[in-house]
Amino acid sequence: MHSGCSLPDEKFARFRLLASRLVRFLLLGLAALARTGARHIRGVRERAVAAAAQAERCAELLRQSQADLAAALHERDQFHEQLRRQGLALEAARAAAEAAYHAKASFMATMSHELRTPLNIIIGFSTAMVEHPEIYEGVPLPPAFVADLREIRRSGEHLLGLINDILDLARVEAGRIELNRDALSLAPLLDEMLRTARGLLKDRPIRVRGEYHGTLPPVLADETRVRQVLLNLVSNACKFTSVGEVILGAHADGPELTIWVRDTGIGIAAADQARIFNHFEQVEDSQLRPYPSTGLGLAISRWLIELHGGRIWLESELGKGSTFYFTLPCTQVADGQEMLQARAVGA
Questions:
Q1: What is the pLDDT of residue 334?
Q2: What is the pLDDT of residues 106-122, one digit of tens each?
Q3: Residue closest to 219 by CA, chosen among 248, 259, 177, 182
Q4: Could you give the maximum distance between any two Cα atoms of the chain, in Å?
Q5: Which of 220, 247, 205 is nearest to 338 (CA)?
Q6: Which residues make beta-bridge pairs with 312?
Q7: What is the 3 state secondary structure string of the chain?
Q8: How many angstroms separate the CA atoms of 156 and 130, rounded?
C-alpha cells in the first residue's frame, strides 16, 4: 500500500525538479538577454550622444563656414572697390602722363628753336670773325680777341651738343627716332673719324691710327646715327687721353661687323662699368672733374646701337685706358632676315 502511493510523489518531485531547472534556465536566458539589451541600449545611447556631438560640431563648422564665406564676400567686395579706385587712379595717371608728354614735346620743340637759333648765330659769327677777317676790311683781329672768339665758339658748340643730346634722349624715350637704314661702307666713315680725332687732339702728344682695311663688308645702318655714335666714342677717347694713342678699328665677325675705339686714357673702374651706359650716370672720380658732361652720350649710343640690332660694351682698366666695342649687322644677313620674314608672312 505504501509503495503504491510513492510513485506519484516521485513523479511530482521529478517534475518539480525539471520545472525548477527549466525556470532557472529561462531566468538565466532572460537575464542574459536583459544584459545584452542593456548593453545595446547603452551603445545606442552612446552613439546617439556621439551623433549629437558630431551634429553640433557640424553645425558649428557650418556656422564658421558661413562666417568665412561672409568675410570672403566682404573682402571680395573691398577688393573690387580697390580695383575700381586703382583703375580710376591709373586712368587719371595716364591722362596726366599724356598731358605731361604733350607738354614736354611742346617744350622740346620750343627749346629746339629758341636755343638752337641764337646758338647757331653765336657759333656762326664767332667762326666768321676768326676765319674771315675780310669782313672787317681785311684788318685782322688782335690775337687776344681771336682766342676769346675761339673760346666763345667752343663753348657754344659744347652747349649745342648738350641740347642735341637732351633732345635725342627725349626722342628715344618717346620712341620717335626712326632709322633711315641703307647699305653703308664703314671705311670712309672711319677715315673721317680719324681726321676728327686728330683735330680734337690738336698739339697733344697722342698718336691716332686705324686698324681696319678698305674691304670691310657693308652694314645695314643709318649713316647719320652711326656717325653720331662714333663721334661720341671718339670725342670721349680724345677727352680722357692725355698721352699715348687713340685707335679706331673694325673687322668682320661672322654675320656682323665689330667696331671699336681704344684709348690709353684714365680708364674706368670695374665698379662703374655696369652703369656707364645708363642715362645721366657719370663716374664719380676726381680725375674726371676737368671733363664735365651730361652723362647722356653713352646712353644714347647704346639705344641707337640696340635700335640697329647690335650690341655695345666696353673693356677698361683704371689708369690703363678703355676700349668701347659695338656691332652692326652686315647687309647680307639683314637681307636674309628680311627674306625669311617675307616668306613667313606669305606662308
A1: 46
A2: 777 677 677 778 888 88
A3: 182
A4: 194
A5: 220
A6: 326
A7: CHHHHHHHHHHHHHHHHHHHHHHHHHHHHHHHHHHHHHHHHHHHHHHHHHHHHHHHHHHHHHHHHHHHHHHHHHHHHHHHHHHHHHHHHHHHHHHHHHHHHHHHHHHHHHHHHHHHHHHHHHHHHHHHHHHCHHHHCCCCCCHHHHHHHHHHHHHHHHHHHHHHHHHHHHHHHCCCCCCCCEEECHHHHHHHHHHHHHHHHCCCCEEEEEECCCCCCCEEECHHHHHHHHHHHHHHHHHCCCCEEEEEEEEEECCEEEEEEEECCCCCCHHHHCCCCCCCCCCCCHHHCCCCCCCCHHHHHHHHHHHCCCCEEEEEECCCEEEEEEEEEEHHHHHHHHHHHHHHHHC
A8: 15
- Distance CA(226)–CA(180), nearest Å, equals 11
Tell me what the mean pLDDT of segment 241-255 comes to.
92
pLDDT value of position 128: 84
Q: What values do phi and psi take at 245, rounded to 5?
A: -155, 160
Residue 32 burial by Cβ neighbours in a 10 Å radius (0-12, 13-18, 19+): exposed
- Asked whether 291 and 241 are in contact (CB, 8 A), the reply is no
Long-range contacts of 166-169 (CB under 8 A, 24+ apart): 166/108, 166/294, 166/296, 167/108, 167/111, 167/112, 168/296, 168/300, 169/279, 169/296, 169/299, 169/300
- Using 50, 70 and 90 to split pLDDT, how confident is the model at 345? very low
What is the Cα–Cα distance from 158 to 31, expressed in whole angstroms? 120
The whole-model pTM stands at 0.58
